[in-house]
Specification:
mainly alpha, 3 helices, about 0% strand, elongated
Length: about 90
């Protein structure tokens, strides 16, 4: 049956979504929402090149790894369900 695979897939997806939401709230991703809607209308161009810190690079790599792990888990569940389903 597909039922245990579906439940585990949904639980993993929900857990990962909750972790990413908590991370976004703690790092301030949702701050300044009123200001953000007017940003495309401004004419100023910020051409200064900001150096990325080591933490920002590690954060990017971690998010990339989470995305790849999620896709891998999805593929594993799908393949397992197709191979073991009767």
């Amino acid at each position: 049956m597909y039922f245990p695979y579906f439940i585990s897939y949904m639980a993993i997806g929900f857990t990962l979504s909750l972790v990413v939401l908590i991370w976004a709230i703690r790092t301030g991703q949702f701050k300044h929402q009123r200001r953000a809607r007017f940003l495309p209308l401004t004419e100023e161009l910020n051409l200064s090149t900001a150096k990325t810190s080591r933490f920002n690079r590690l954060e990017t790599y971690a998010l990339f790894f989470i995305a790849i792990a999620g896709l891998g888990a999805s593929a594993a569940v799908l393949i397992s369900a197709l191979l073991h389903g009767n």
